[in-house]
Write a structure and sequence with these properties.
The protein is of the alpha+beta class and about 600 residues long. It has 2 domains: about 5-200, Beta-galactosidase, Chain A, domain 5 (Distorted Sandwich); about 250-605, Glycosyltransferase (Alpha/alpha barrel), CATH 1.50.10. The protein is about 30% helix and about 20% strand. The protein contains 12 helices and 28 strands. The strands form 7 sheets. The chain has a 15-stranded antiparallel beta sheet that branches. A 3-stranded antiparallel beta sheet has the order 26-27-28. The chain is globular. The two termini are about 40 Å apart.
Length: about 600
């Protein structure tokens, strides 16, 4: 359990790493060590934020529960759950706040489409001494409240379609949106915030019952967990974090629950990640499947194929309904985290061409079938069309895995994933005796692999490069052995690994994705080190037989997780501070996948 630490803010903002994540399979919230819920969208992940103080300390709005004169605090999760505890020390007392989105009785987080109750539970206990407790709820855009028998009905002009109700159990009734009450050791205050349409006054189950059901729901899900290997505690937490990003009504998985947390403080590389990227979600379900969670893989495959069928050409990302997100726009009102503007809603990458989606979907279907899933003729007709698209488009320019905002280029990673689509398509057709030009597909897959090895190679730097015909270095090439495109121990892959470590190294095992001055992306400035790339480096070292080096790097990366076991998209190489949207699915995928790979290779080596 983490030690108490002082609350330290910079420019009125907590460090990104000083926040915990809670959720219920439809939405999520960030809870700071200062007792403030500074980010929460309702009714679902991609809805407008009800609270977004993390993007504007003055006007963003928050739901705060904290002792006046707060000096230090710590956070921890209840074991194997998404229930978060924050302990805060005031001048003369200590309180504990337990936060959770409540789950229905008996909820199955793998399959229930409505596991959550649309309730935020905040349970406050005074552990020692006396405190003056501050309770403040301030939605973005302001609100007013009226008292009813259950507590407060909250009206938010900026959210006309959302009704809010806040109930309170404790020694002091709530009469307004801001209260300050005196409490002593042993006192409890229990708050429940509900949202929806047509809310009616009703009797609640006791908060203790709600919390108990929620704890049991999370732990039932974790009974599927299967992993024995390095950093087991962090792998467990990473599984829970990915599940917190899973939209249970249909199996979509968001890349991150936040928008516009900057990739560089003061920079403009601030994006909305509250959508389901086919690539990110495919990586997520692949990682979860490897540690025992198979239902998520089945549900995601169904979701993405439905999205592709209903939306025409495969897109790189979708909203949670499987349709096109709103157009990207800059919001002039919020100042941005630590004044890192602009704040964006929507994501223009939805309009981009990224050919790797073919491989992501086919590989997901292949992995599913390898573990008992069936490919019928209806499903195959949809998959076959994606294989043929990969065969015809692999050499064409696109915007690549990193979604550059320049004209397209024939990115190596995109070509490689088209090779994956052809390879997996041929294997599926053979396994299930399905119609398809399997020999043509296999031959095309071989041609693409050879084109990558020859056309992306730069003799001068002794490395594969970002696109066919040459270019800058690209850390996504480290994923080629993981996707079984080029073996890690092939001489050109070994050389590429060394070149990336040297030229994209940010120090202490961290890697940049690419260098914008060598690989123009159409955006100003730079960014932090991208964590997933370092986990890919772990895998390459391990596959090359350098187990000791891989383990050392893996442990160092895992040590960068915050006290709660959460990881961001990027790390500031100088300060170690978290950057980018948080927590990031990609980074937790790296924890799981690299852990599984290392565990298997270590066992294999020990059995020789």
């Amino acid at each position: 359990m983490a030690a108490f630490a002082p609350i330290e803010k910079v420019d009125a903002y907590l460090p990104i790493e000083d926040h915990g994540l809670i959720g219920d399979g439809t939405t999520a919230a960030l809870v700071g060590r200062d007792g403030a819920i500074s980010w929460m969208c309702v009714p679902r992940f991609d809805s407008p934020p009800l609270f977004c103080e993390i993007l504007d300390a003055k006007r963003g709005g928050s739901f705060t529960v904290a002792p006046e004169g707060l000096g230090e605090s710590r956070q921890f999760y209840e074991a194997d759950t998404g229930v978060l505890v924050t302990e805060m020390r005031g001048p003369s007392g200590l309180i504990r706040v337990t936060d959770a989105f409540s789950l229905r009785s008996g909820a199955d987080l793998s399959e229930d489409v409505s596991a959550g109750r649309r309730e935020l539970l905040r349970m406050i206990s005074v552990l020692t001494g006396r405190v003056r407790l501050r309770i403040e709820i301030e939605p973005r855009g302001g609100a007013h409240a009226e008292v009813d028998r259950d507590g407060l009905r909250i009206h938010c002009p900026s959210f006309p379609d959302i009704e809010l109700q806040l109930s309170c159990r404790g020694p002091h009734p709530l009469r307004r949106l801001y209260e300050s009450v005196e409490l002593s050791a042993g006192d409890r205050v229990e708050l429940i915030l509900r949202w929806g349409k047509g809310l009616t006054s009703r009797s609640y189950a006791s908060p203790d019952e709600l919390l108990g059901e929620t704890l049991r729901g999370w732990r039932r899900w974790m009974h599927q967990f299967q992993y024995e290997g390095p950093e087991e505690a962090l792998v467990r937490r990473s599984a829970l974090t990915l599940k917190l990003l899973d939209y249970t009504p249909n199996g979509a998985i968001v890349a991150a629950p936040t928008s516009s947390l900057p990739e560089l403080i003061g920079g403009s590389r601030n994006w909305d990640y509250r959508y389901a990227w086919v690539r990110d979600a495919a990586f997520s379900v692949y990682a979860l499947r490897r540690i025992g969670f198979t239902v998520e893989a089945v549900r995601f495959l169904g979701w993405v194929l439905d999205a592709v069928e209903s939306g025409g050409r495969p897109r790189v990302l979708y909203n949670l309904d499987g349709t096109q997100p709103q157009p990207e726009r800059k919001d002039p009102e919020p100042e941005g985290y630590r004044r890192s503007a602009p704040v964006r809603w929507g994501n223009a990458a939805a309009e981009q061409w990224q050919h790797d989606v073919y491989g992501e979907i086919l590989d997901c279907a292949y992995q599913w079938s390898a573990h008992g899933g069936k490919i019928d003729h209806v499903l195959w007709a949809r998959l076959k069309a994606l294989v043929e698209a990969a065969r015809s488009e692999w050499h064409k320019p696109d915007h690549g895995i990193w979604e550059v905002r320049t004209p397209g280029r024939p990115f190596t990673y995109s070509a490689a994933l088209c090779q994956v689509a052809l390879d997996r398509g041929a294997r599926l057709a053979k396994r299930f005796d399905l119609p398809g030009d399997t020999e043509i597909w296999k031959a095309a897959a071989g041609r693409i692999r050879n084109a990558i090895i020859e056309e992306a190679w730069d003799e001068r730097i002794q490395s594969l490069t970002e696109h066919l015909g040459g270019g800058g270095l690209d850390a996504s090439l480290l994923s080629l052995p993981i996707r079984r495109v080029i073996p890690a121990d092939r001489p050109r892959m070994i050389s590429t690994t060394a070149a990336i470590a040297e030229r994209l190294g940010a120090g202490n095992g961290l890697l940049y994705r690419y260098l914008p001055e060598e690989s123009p992306d159409g955006l100003p400035g730079h960014e932090g080190a991208f964590l997933l790339c370092s986990f890919w480096m772990v895998d390459n070292l391990a596959y090359q037989g350098r187990i000791g080096e891989a383990l050392e790097l893996y442990h160092s990366l895992c040590a960068r997780a915050g006290d709660l076991g959460l990881l961001p998209e990027e790390i500031d190489p100088v300060s170690g501070a978290f950057l980018g949207n948080y927590p990031q699915a990609f980074s937790h995928i790296g924890v799981i996948s690299s852990g599984v790979n290392l565990s298997r290779l270590i066992k294999k080596e020990a059995s020789r």
